């Protein structure tokens, strides 16, 4: 779909496609995790912590992934009550809380670890690898443009 800035309806259609990708991801995640009763934000929070990218605070997750810190905190509270996340106060700065995920459920751990890869594989099924690379490059540029 090509964006035509002279046609605002076309722009709305293009933006709705991005919303559909996210909605379908949430549906996909819920289906893979049926029976666990997690919200999309709880799922994302667990995945962010499992990625072990050096980000282990609600503020860090919020900044990196463009969601509100209060949304992450609600997810952390819920996951803490369920015994999935523990919160540890930073010894050097008591205002900072580090999050740690502790999953004993091997099936859940496996699903969360592979969820994004499974969805990306499904999303790009039948797409030429060069087109996938172009999509990723353009998406990266879009991200830079709107930051």
How would you describe this protein?
- With 147 residues, this protein is mainly alpha-helical.
- It has helices at residues 8-32, 40-50, 58-65, 69-81, 106-123, 129-146, and strands at residues 85-89, 97-101.
- α3 (58-65) packs across α4 (69-81).
- It has one domain (12-118): Winged helix-like DNA-binding domain superfamily/Winged helix DNA-binding domain (Arc Repressor Mutant, subunit A), CATH 1.10.10.
Q: Can I get a quick summary?
A:
The protein is mainly alpha-helical and 147 residues long.
Note the main attributes of this structure.
single chain; mainly alpha; Arc Repressor Mutant, subunit A; two-stranded antiparallel ribbon; globular
What is the gyration radius calculated from CA atoms? 18 Å
* Fraction of helical residues: 55-70%
CATH architecture term:
Orthogonal Bundle
CATH topology descriptor: Arc Repressor Mutant, subunit A
Helical/strand content category: mainly alpha
Q: Beta-strand level of the residues, as a percent range?
A: 5-15%
Number of continuous helical runs: 6
Distance between the termini: 23 Å
What profile does the largest beta sheet have?
Answer: 2 strands, antiparallel
User: What pattern of helices and strands is seen along the backbone?
Assistant: HHHHEEHH
Highest-level CATH class: Mainly Alpha
Indicate how many domains the architecture comprises: 1
Overall geometric form: globular
Strand order of the largest sheet: 1-2
Task: Please count the beta strands (DSSP E, at least 2 residues each).
Answer: 2
Could you name the ranges where pLDDT drops below 50 across 5 or more consecutive residues?
none
Mean pLDDT across all amino acids: 89
Oligomer: single chain
């Amino acid at each position: 779909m090509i964006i035509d800035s002279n046609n605002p309806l076309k722009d709305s259609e293009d933006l709705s496609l991005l919303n559909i990708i996210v909605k379908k991801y949430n549906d996909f995640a819920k289906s893979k995790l049926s029976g666990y009763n997690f919200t999309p934000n709880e799922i994302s929070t667990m995945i962010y912590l499992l990625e072990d990218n050096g980000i282990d605070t609600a503020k860090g997750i919020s900044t990196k992934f463009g969601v509100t810190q209060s949304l992450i905190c609600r997810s952390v509270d819920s996951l803490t009550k369920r015994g999935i996340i523990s919160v540890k106060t930073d010894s050097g700065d008591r205002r900072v809380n580090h999050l740690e995920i502790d999953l004993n459920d091997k099936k859940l751990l496996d699903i969360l670890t592979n969820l994004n890869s499974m969805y990306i594989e499904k999303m790009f099924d039948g797409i030429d690898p060069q087109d996938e690379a172009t999509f990723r490059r353009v998406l990266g540029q879009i991200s830079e443009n709107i930051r």
